[in-house]
């Protein structure tokens, strides 16, 4: 049996607790800083750490949409095509079909024409399965395109690729309009289809939420990564050029992952993680709150303890030096362990980190570390949401409007203690009275169904 928790380990945990502390006053500062960055980003391009991208989505779906719409969701090594039938006033999706297709590795570094040609051929096969559909009634098919890579949009249905991320490296596509590339590829396949909207998954989450509940005004992704989109008044966007949309509204994709501020509680572990990341000094907020990083922050704390204490045995016999070996589902499982002897914690430590024979005190300490890191994450995410709520003049005593936040992502969906902490922090920051009219709702598949809904809300056949 390895030693129980010693003074050295206790000191490391105490210091972590102090440095990760998020009292309401600090969170209030984070919300204020978020709101200031939002205003600066709306004022001018490159005016802020967060981009505040104009999505050109000026109408959110409201349940009156009807007809058959397609969606294409491209964001990684697979893409999905969807067909969604909407029943208008019944406010429901009558039917949805989808197909997932893997992209052959050679196409991820080939030419733009090859990639979009492959996508269009898969789409053509999917369209061919439509059957005898009376819903279209001679109308041109319409498609919403979720493209989860950085683009510069100039309208609802055009956007030039700024750069590829993930495993893609197709040089001749950079600087080109991805909608035009897709449209050309579809025409070559003989598909009569118009791309009605180019969106990202956060905007899609907002749209899906709005379709199911008209009071949804913010969409948030809390999964592997994190981002937020919200409905802004068009006249509050100084950088928006040209005529204001008839609706008077505009969805803004904040790209809040890149937010950073002196208010944020940043530890030595966060600094080391950032320094060793693929994008140092970028996406600081995302690195503090999203699912990709929480497990590795916990691992780094355990590694520091192991380098100064023997409670985990000899460091060389463990996997503690392997980056990202501890994932957020692992820390969630340990954090939620309710067995009397913390058996799940023992199993996770043994299986994943090769740390065996831990004492019950040591396992309790590990749960404690998971709690400190996750609580900070959830509380900061809540502060970011409050910053957006304040920016749109909601959530104040006396404001009688209901404000709903649609949230998607595995961190929010599956990590119960994260979700509970986020919800209780919103109440703490907004106050009892105002928070009664603020709700969060799990909203799934914004990148798929959401894209089809936005295509419907921006259909060429609407009056």
UniProtKB/TrEMBL annotation:
Every Hexokinase C-terminal domain range: 218-456
Set out the biological process GO terms recorded for this chain's protein: glucose 6-phosphate metabolic process; glucose metabolic process; glycolytic process; intracellular glucose homeostasis; response to glucose
InterPro entries, A to Z:
ATPase_NBD (IPR043129), Hexokinase (IPR001312), Hexokinase_C (IPR022673), Hexokinase_N (IPR022672)
Reactions the enzyme catalyzes: a D-hexose + ATP = a D-hexose 6-phosphate + ADP + H(+); D-glucose + ATP = D-glucose 6-phosphate + ADP + H(+); D-fructose + ATP = D-fructose 6-phosphate + ADP + H(+)
User: Pfam families under this entry?
Assistant: Hexokinase_1, Hexokinase_2
Q: What metabolic or biological pathway is this protein involved in?
A: Carbohydrate degradation; glycolysis; D-glyceraldehyde 3-phosphate and glycerone phosphate from D-glucose: step 1/4; Carbohydrate metabolism; hexose metabolism
Q: What residues does the Hexokinase N-terminal domain cover?
A: 13-211
Superkingdom classification of source:
Eukaryota
Signal peptide feature range: none
In short, the EC number is 2.7.1.-
UniProt keyword annotations, A-Z: ATP-binding, Glycolysis, Kinase, Nucleotide-binding, Transferase
Record keyword Kinase present: yes
Family, as annotated: Belongs to the hexokinase family.
Name of the protein described by the UniProt record: Phosphotransferase
Q: Which organism is it from?
A: Triticum aestivum (Wheat)
């Amino acid at each position: 049996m390895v030693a129980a928790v010693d003074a050295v380990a206790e000191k490391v945990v105490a210091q972590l607790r102090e440095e990760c502390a998020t009292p309401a006053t600090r969170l209030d500062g984070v919300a204020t800083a978020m709101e200031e960055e939002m205003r600066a980003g709306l004022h001018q391009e490159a005016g802020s750490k967060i981009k505040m991208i104009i999505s050109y989505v000026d109408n959110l779906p409201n349940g009156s949409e009807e007809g058959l719409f397609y969606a294409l969701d491209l964001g990684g090594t697979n893409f999905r095509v969807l067909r969604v039938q909407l029943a208008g006033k019944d406010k429901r999706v009558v039917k949805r079909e989808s197909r997932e297709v893997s992209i052959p590795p050679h196409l991820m570094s080939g030419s733009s024409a090859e990639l979009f040609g492959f996508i269009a051929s898969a789409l053509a096969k999917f369209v061919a399965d439509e059957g005898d559909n009376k819903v279209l009634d001679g109308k041109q098919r319409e498609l919403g395109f979720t493209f989860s890579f950085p683009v510069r949009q100039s309208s609802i249905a055009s956007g030039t690729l700024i750069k590829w991320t993930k495993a893609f490296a197709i040089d001749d596509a950079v600087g080109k309009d991805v909608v035009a590339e897709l449209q050309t590829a579809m025409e070559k396949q003989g598909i009569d289809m118009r791309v009605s909207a180019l969106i990202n998954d956060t905007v899609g989450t907002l749209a899906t939420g709005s379709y199911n509940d008209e009071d949804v005004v913010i969409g948030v992704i809390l999964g592997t990564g994190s981002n937020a989109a919200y409905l802004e008044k068009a006249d509050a966007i100084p950088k928006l050029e040209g005529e204001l949309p008839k609706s008077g509204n505009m969805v803004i994709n904040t790209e809040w992952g890149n937010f950073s501020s002196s208010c944020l509680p940043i530890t030595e572990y966060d600094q080391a993680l950032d320094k060793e990341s693929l994008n140092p000094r970028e996406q600081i907020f995302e690195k503090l709150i999203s699912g990709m990083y929480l497990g590795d922050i916990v691992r780094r704390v355990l590694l520091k303890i192991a380098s100064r204490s023997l409670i985990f045995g000899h460091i060389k016999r463990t996997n503690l030096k392997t980056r990202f070996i501890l994932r957020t589902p692992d820390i969630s499982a340990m954090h939620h362990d309710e067995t009397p002897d913390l058996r799940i914690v023992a199993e996770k430590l043994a299986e994943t980190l090769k740390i065996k024979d831990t004492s019950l005190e040591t396992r309790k300490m590990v749960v404690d570390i998971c709690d400190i890191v996750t609580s900070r994450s959830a509380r900061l995410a809540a502060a970011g949401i409050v910053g957006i709520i304040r920016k749109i003049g909601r959530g104040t005593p006396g404001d009688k409007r209901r404000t709903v936040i649609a949230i998607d992502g595995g961190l929010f969906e599956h990590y119960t203690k994260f979700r509970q902490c986020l919800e209780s922090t919103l109440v703490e920051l907004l106050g009892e009275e105002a928070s009664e009219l603020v709700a969060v709702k799990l909203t799934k598949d914004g990148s798929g169904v959401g894209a089809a809904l936005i295509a419907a809300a921006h259909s060429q056949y609407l009056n």
